[in-house]
From TrEMBL:
It comes from Streptomyces flavochromogenes. Keywords: Signal. It holds the Pfam family Peripla_BP_2. Belongs to the bacterial solute-binding protein 8 family. Transmembrane segments: none annotated. This is ABC transporter substrate-binding protein. Gene3D superfamilies: Nitrogenase molybdenum iron protein domain (3.40.50.1980). PANTHER family: IRON(III) DICITRATE-BINDING PROTEIN, VITAMIN B12-BINDING PROTEIN. Residues 61-344 form the Fe/B12 periplasmic-binding domain. Coiled coil: none annotated. The keyword Signal applies. Residues 24-45 are annotated as: Disordered.
């Protein structure tokens, strides 16, 4: 991100600093348990979104139903165990391109049950529970009946998680649980450790924020039909704010990305604004430039100090939802707060 308060760190570099490694190198033999032949040994057992997932051996034909799951598996070096991906929302980062190119795309958008079954999976992974519905890939119960075990990110299952677990810790538990099932514990453990360290660095970088002087922030994810969608209390940005000593201005709304009015954004008068750049998605109002133009042209929003004085940060929009990339957005947020003078 550039700065007036734009940051401009390349995603490839961010993935490296967050513990990302090139997924294209090495085959499955490098990621099995020590001393085990590729694909040998028990697959292990974990609990995923209230259901026990027990595998007789590491999966060989996994389908990832969304981009976040796909990139997690690629980061764990499991491309040789993947039989399909779906629902790509933005470009695959450069470190994953070669590995991703070898995996069949079973559906460009949300996969149907027919598309999933045609891939003959032995394991299915999804970042959100709503991909497992009768009119989509099929319910988890339906897939269980077909002897196809399923996994859902813990971040999307608040009703089944222990109290007090943060979204980042839930995300890291996904890495560790998938490592158990695939016999890739060492690589999963390193990824979780590297990203825990990145979270700690972001918090340390903004430790100069006084508890009684926390800046407020609005996260503008998208603009649809002229209306803003912002981060509510249950989304990852609220946790990101807490880590860096800021306060999400819409923390009282119990939704991930509620639709609000521009007048309500103005009423909350944030100290700064984070724009999610969704340029690659390509819908009207998705790009950071369009969001900036909309705010500057709005008769009320344009008068906010955050807009008038360009106290605006841009981050890749996809990184504001939980994924292997999210620590990058956290690092951008921490650096942006320092650049804006909110942290020493």
């Amino acid at each position: 991100m550039r700065n007036t308060a734009r940051l401009g760190i390349a995603l490839t570099l961010a993935l490296a600093t967050a513990g990302c490694s090139t997924a294209g190198g090495g085959g499955s033999a490098a990621h099995t348990r020590p001393g085990a032949a590729p694909g040998a040994g028990p697959g292990g057992s974990v609990t995923s979104c209230g259901r026990q997932v027990s595998l007789a051996g590491p999966p060989r034909r996994t389908v990832a139903l969304d981009q976040s799951s796909t990139e997690t598996l690629l980061e764990l070096g499991l491309q040789d165990r993947m039989a399909g991906t779906a629902n790509l929302k933005t470009k695959i980062p450069a470190p994953y391109e070669a590995a991703y190119a070898k995996i069949p795309v079973i559906a460009p958008k949300i996969a149907t049950g027919e598309q999933l079954r045609a891939a003959t999976p032995d394991f299915v992974v999804a970042g959100s529970a709503d991909l497992y519905t009768a009119d989509r890939a099929g319910t988890r119960e339906e897939l269980d009946a077909l002897k196809v075990p399923t996994f859902v990110s813990a971040v999307d299952c608040p009703q089944h998680n222990p109290p007090g677990r943060t979204p980042f810790e839930l995300l890291f538990s996904d890495y560790e649980n998938l490592g158990t099932l695939f016999g890739a514990e060492e690589r999963a453990g390193k990824l979780a450790a590297d990203q825990r360290a990145a979270v700690a660095r972001a918090g340390a970088a903004t430790s100069g924020v006084r508890s009684g002087d926390r800046p407020t922030v609005v996260y503008l994810y998208s603009v649809f039909n002229g209306m803003p969608y912002v981060a509510g209390r249950t989304g990852l940005p609220s946790e990101m704010s807490r880590i860096v000593g800021a306060e999400n201005a819409f923390d009282d709304v119990q939704e991930d990305w509620p639709e609000v009015s521009w007048e309500e954004v103005a009423r909350r008068d944030p100290d700064f604004i984070v724009i999610g750049d969704l340029s690659e998605r390509g819908r009207p109002g998705d790009s950071a430039a369009e969001k900036r133009a909309t705010m500057k042209a709005h008769p009320v929003i344009s008068r906010l100090a955050a807009v008038r004085d360009d106290k605006i940060l841009e981050v890749p929009g996809i990184e504001l939802d939980p994924s292997v990339r999210s620590v990058h957005a956290l690092e951008l947020l921490a650096q942006g707060m320092k650049d804006l003078g909110h942290a020493r």
